[in-house]
């Protein structure tokens, strides 16, 4: 019998359990403990330097960078491996202008017409407002869409799956020296029409580019580990 080759180290191994669907051996190399921890520390240092950006450079970004970030997003786990997402990208100046106009219309309602004192107060330290100039300045706009159905069938854990994929997408962009922002004007239905994604729900709008030379970000602190992690029953 021709057994599948282990893609991690080239060794031919059998699938040892009975299955009713195709399975492959999964034997990634086990790293020495210190090497694994070093990699974890390096990844933390990289991601800890990431910030959401609202001031972008108009300098061009190759389309391959967007492709690579979506390839990274496609490696995310998803409910039943349905991968219920679609990333729609545009660098078209006319379309970016139309997206900005529609987003600012919704944002003006949010900031000036809706009675949301707690929400507005929570955002105050970020100094955000209805002006979304970055939607025209950033060389790329990418919208992550959630697919509640695929080929007429319901998808499962859709929001969770798309959220994880977007996290991978953001991390990939940062690893390439690019910046983005998780922009979510509410409602975002205008993006479905402008980007021709009927039957899909806009999830996050990402402006993507290099930070502007004079970029500034709020002076924020990450949640400390003791507030983010609890070991129950002690350490192993």
From TrEMBL:
Keywords: Flavoprotein, FMN, Oxidoreductase. Residues 49-210 form the Nitroreductase domain. Gene3D superfamilies: NADH Oxidase (3.40.109.10). It holds the Pfam family Nitroreductase. It comes from the Bacteria. This is Oxidoreductase. It comes from Lentzea cavernae. The lineage of its organism: Bacteria, Bacillati, Actinomycetota, Actinomycetes, Pseudonocardiales.
